[in-house]
Amino acid sequence: MAPRILLDATAVPADRGGLGRYVDGLLCALHRQGADLAVACQRADAQRYEGLVPGAQVVAGPATLSHRATRLAWEQSGLPHVAERVGADVIHLPTYTMPVSATRPTVVTIHDVTLFAEPEPHDPVRTSYIKSATRTAARRATRLIAPSRATRDELVRIVGADPDHIDVAYHGVDHEVFHRPSEAETKHVSDRLGLHGRPYVAYLGALEPRKNVPNLIRGWVHACTGRTDPPALVLAGGGGWDDEVDAALATVPLELRVLRPGYLSWSDLPGFFGGALVVALPSRGEGFGLPVLEAMSCGAPVLTTHRGSLPEVGGDAVAYTEPDPAGIAGALSALMDDPSRRAELAEAAHARSQQFSWAASAEAHMASYQRAVDQYAATRTH
After folding, report:
1. How many C-beta atoms lie closer than 10 Å to residue 70's C-beta?
2. Are the CB atoms for 204 and 264 separated by under 8 Å?
3. What keywords are annotated for this sequence in UniProt (predicted)?
4. In CATH terms, is domain 183-353 a member of 3.40.50.2000?
5. 37, 294, 339, 350: which could form a disulfide with 299 (CB 3.0–4.6 Å)?
């Protein structure tokens, strides 16, 4: 008999972001596979999850869960009570925190351990908390889920996690949402950005140090030097911070154009990715690299790095660069000058993206849930 799963979605932010796409994609796929589901969420999301997973028991927490500190406190005391109330056999925490006094098996997803290598210099309290919570999860969770082999290996190396208690479950991508765009879709996005058909290099993500945006700006400036029709640079997305971004932007020559449109709607992303000359995501490290996969699914030529999990996602279907400005400049210039290479990458990227699905991810998660239940039961009988 399949276990009854309580997924704690209370950490999903209002803007959804990568965590929201993971939770939504996974829940929909689990539902389609007939999983016995309950969902804990913030009140504002209750109707959303009732629509996403009809028939699942959706439990909305207190209104104060929108505050992070309150949510973390509730997770310790309130979530175990919800698990008892819904009769859960296993609790899935889709990010690094967990209730330390849970009386049921727990599965915790650790998306990455990049903060151990590159701590946030302006938020030492948050960095310290995340590192401590990650170590606690590695020690106390029944099982861990990592979204890539690279992240699994880093959990073992940096945190000392038991490799026998870690399951790898790649993220999926919604191929209906992230699809090859029509000409009308690319024109719509281009016009909304004020580009009206002009070429552009696309970036989507948070402005935080590991995303390497300052070096992308500097590399793009060097790649555009001397070009009669240089592409614009569009830095889409929001959240996070990196003091070096403004410093790098201050060096951009007046004849070059940088756009910062903020968050784009989901419906605009295929046109944004698929309409780009190049999608450049030269991160210093990722636990998975969901924007890379989403851009690939939209048939975009992608430039990224060999760091972390990114080669597991991109394979031979993307172009790679070192993360320094000179490397980015050289790689971007080569792609700008080679339309046939860009077309080859676009085709290969779309084909490779079909190997990733939320259905496959859900199967790997279900296997992890069952292992957690069996493992927990075995410890209780000894």
Report:
1. 15
2. yes
3. Glycosyltransferase, Transferase
4. yes
5. 350
The helix (run of H) or strand (run of E) holding residue 137 is helix 124-140
| Residue 334 · residue 1 · CB < 8 Å | no
Q: For tokens 């009140």, name the residue.
A: 43
Q: Which of 370, 377, 380 is nearest to 5 (CA)?
A: 370
User: What is the predicted pLDDT for the residue at 121?
Assistant: 60
Measured at the CA of 326, the angle between CA 321 and CA 332, to 5 degrees, comes to 55
Tens digits of per-residue pLDDT, 297-341? 999 999 999 999 999 999 999 999 999 999 999 999 999 999 999
pLDDT of residue 243: 80
The structure tokens listed for 303 are: 């430039």
Phi-psi region of 16 (alpha: psi -120 to 50; beta: other; left: phi over 0): left
- The Cα–Cα gap between 41 and 62 comes to 9
In this chain, the answer to whether the domains covering 4-172+358-376 and 183-353 adopt an identical fold is yes
Residue type, 118: E
Q: Amino acid identity, residue 340?
A: S
The CA-based angle 237-295-53, given to 5 degrees, is 80
Question: Could you say which residues of the chain have pLDDT below 50?
Answer: none
Of 98, 90, 49, 50, nearest in space to 71 by CA = 98
Domain 4-172+358-376 has CATH 3.40.50.12160: no
Sheet strand arrangement including 200-204: 258-262, 232-236, 200-204, 278-281, 302-305, 319-321
Helix (H) or strand (E) holding 340, with range, is helix 339-353
Q: Where are the domains of the chain?
A: 4-172+358-376, 183-353
Give pLDDT, residue 119.
Answer: 67
**10 Å Cβ neighbour count for 135?**
16
Say how many residues make up the chain.
382
Pull the structure tokens for residue 145: 């889920």
